[in-house]
Design a protein that fits this description.
Layout: E1 34-35, E2 42-43, E3 53-66, E4 71-82, H1 89-93, E5 125-129, E6 135-150, E7 159-169, E8 178-190, E9 218-233, H2 238-241, E10 248-249, E11 267-279, E12 283-294, E13 301-303, E14 306-307, E15 309-312, E16 316-319, E17 336-337, E18 355-357, E19 362-363
Parallel strand pairs: 10-19
Antiparallel strand pairs: 1-2, 3-4, 4-7, 5-6, 6-7, 8-9, 9-12, 11-12, 13-18, 14-17, 15-16
Length: about 375
């Protein structure tokens, strides 16, 4: 750097973040003289003070990386030289040449009006510059996330290296969906055996020694698939999707991905979303998480057709103790199986089919494009 003097220039006084915090530790100013210090000449004039940045340049050590899910990471590096070894990291990391312009004659003073002559701050967009500090490329979705200032030359404590790390996602929609198949445990109340001996025999009802059904059946452990689908979208409106919550598929689901697909009525969905920073403090996208539970038996409620009353011809509903088959027995203590027409079932007959009820609405999930993978 060339050396020189400033006869009628006043160096801007230190300000918060640009030297003020170090002023008590610095030597007093010398009006109208060039104060020789190693590497960096300090120009001072009448009323000037010490404790500032007098050299700023972007240097090599830049890098860029891209991940499989679309995230970009960039690095920019800057060389900063200060007027005194005691100028601290706060001054260096907050340097802005518009706020504290270089005096005339100081190397780089011709760029005093350039807004990019500054240390990047968290939230700044990523930019690339030409030799005259003009912006030639910018990416508003990749922002500064970390700034570090370090004295990297132990032989010259006026020399600093500032590293600015950038990260962001240029096109979150291009990210592939994340899909997980997990198992959800549950229990069912069995009222018939699931396996018979011989294999083609009629399933035996689960009854006690008196041929009465157990009140709650016999519980058996089961597992069903749960599909978690995560995908990035630019917009998210929970009002529009509220009607899909806890709905079941009205059409075959995932036929292309897993032929022949899951039949209508076998899949139940719940939807959530997380807002994710894309760049800066006002640029976001959404990470939608759809959880789809698979029940190959369907999501209709199935209850055992049993009770303490039966329907008698011409007489209507009567207690089971009045039934001709129950004459001479005490009133039943447990619900008794019924036939589809409401009559008392004979324990020797095949067990009646359970009653089914639709307890979840059916919806066409075709508009939910984030389910595709």
């Amino acid at each position: 750097m060339p050396e020189g003097t400033l006869e009628n220039e006043t160096i801007p006084a230190p300000s918060p973040g640009n030297g003020l915090e170090n002023w008590p530790a610095l030597p007093p100013p010398f009006g109208g003289q060039l104060v020789p210090v190693p590497v960096v000449p300090v120009f001072v004039g009448q009323g000037a003070v010490l404790g500032a940045v007098w050299w700023f340049e972007e240097v090599t050590d830049r890098s860029q990386a891209r991940t499989l899910d679309g995230e970009q990471r960039m690095t920019r590096a800057f060389q900063v030289l200060t007027s005194h070894p005691l100028v601290g990291s706060t001054t260096v990391a907050a340097f802005d040449q518009i706020r504290t312009p270089f005096p005339v004659g100081c190397p780089g003073f011709e760029f005093n009006g350039k807004p990019q002559r500054r240390v990047p701050q968290p939230g700044d967009w990523y930019v690339e510059l030409d030799r005259d500090w003009n912006v030639v490329h910018t990416n508003r979705h990749v922002v500064c996330v970390d700034v570090r200032a370090a004295q990297t030359n132990p032989e010259n404590l006026q020399e600093w290296t500032v590293t600015a790390e950038y990260a962001g996602v240029s096109d979150p929609v291009a990210q592939p969906a994340s899909v997980d198949f997990t198992c959800t445990p549950y229990q069912v109340a069995q009222i018939v055996e699931v396996e018979t001996v011989p294999p083609n025999a009629e399933p035996r009802p689960i009854l006690n020694s008196a041929k009465d059904p157990f009140v709650e059946g016999v519980f058996a452990d089961r597992n069903r698939f749960t599909i978690s689908i995560q995908r990035s979208v630019l917009t998210w409106n929970p009002i529009q999707l509220a009607d899909y919550q806890n709905s079941v598929n009205a059409v075959t689901f995932l036929a292309a991905q897993h032929p022949p697909g899951f039949e209508p009525g076998t899949c139940k969905i719940s939807i959530a979303a997380v807002r994710v920073r894309r760049g800066g403090n006002r640029d976001f996208y959404w990470r939608v998480n759809a959880s789809v539970e698979i029940n190959l038996d369907g999501w209709d409620a199935r209850v055992r057709d049993a009770g303490f009353n039966y329907l008698a011809p011409f007489l209507g509903k009567l207690p089971i103790s009045f039934h001709p088959k129950w004459v001479g027995k005490p009133a039943p203590a447990t619900p008794q199986l019924l036939t589809p027409d409401g009559d008392l079932a004979d324990p020797a007959d095949p067990i009646p089919a359970p009653l089914t009820f639709r307890v979840y609405k059916r919806k066409d999930w075709t508009p939910l494009t984030f389910l595709n993978y």
